[in-house]
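INTERNAL AUDIT FORM
Audit reference: QA-55
Scope: verify that the stored structure record matches its stored sequence.
Auditor: D.O.
Record contents follow.
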Amino acid sequence: MENIDLSIIVASYGTADYLEKCLTSIYKNTKNISYEVIVVDDCSPDHSPQMVREKFPQAKLIENEKNLRYTETNNKGLDACQGRFGLLLNSDVEVHEGAFEKLVTFMDQNKDVAAAGPKLINPDGSVQHCIRSFPGLMVMVLQTLNFHKIFPGNRFTDKYYNTDFDYNLTQPIDSIGTTAFIIRRSIWENIGKLDPKFTHHFVDLSYCLMLKQKSEKVFYVHDAVVTHYGSISINMNGKKEISRVHDALRLFYDEYYADNHSFIYNFIVRQGIKLRAFVKLIEFKLSKNGEVLGGVGISGKKS
């Protein structure tokens, strides 16, 4: 088992039907590399663990004794994996043929790259805009105030959302979501796993920023493709997730920006985050479909 190329870690919470499609696509479309599948179930309220045991006995199933949330669930999977690379995979993803082989090949050919992500596409075949830049102070303020929705196409938030990014070109990036995210073993063993302070939201941005601060490279690989449905688990919990995402936004600002800014700027950003949370709660109450967040660039939307 020590020669396994890839350990595929699927964090699962209450998405049995999507999880079944995800696992089916992995086993159908992953060839020419050695791999293992580790499903870490985070106390799902549905029959997800039973489904895995019955339909995918070849997968390793880990069942959390209590709900640990996204970050610790994925870190638990990394602790259990035996591959040269670990790949974090959301349960609402379907893998296209050869996607993971292409990611492994890319990492083997580029040994100075710490982590990478594939092209994400929507169920209708359109590209999900999943690449982010690290925001500066102005972007943090404007983004919290939904400036990107009020004035779409403005140069400040467009830079954060990388609206002109060429998704047909493999290239280095600041940050990509952990929806499907391959990491070199030496990186998580020597530099660190996902930051548990971020239980779910902003964990990808904080991890990629940590890698950049340590001069490690993150890449986008255009010819590795997966379909991502988006935010299935998150949208189960409505108002609670709105609070959590804005708590995480405040934490991200405090961890990486606040010390470099004046009291008045800190006050503006923090009040902006509170205002944004209030607006999101209003949007949730008025929403017909109960959607909290569109996910990472779902259908080009910017949450």
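Auditor finding: record pair retrieved intact. The mean pLDDT is 87.
Action required: none
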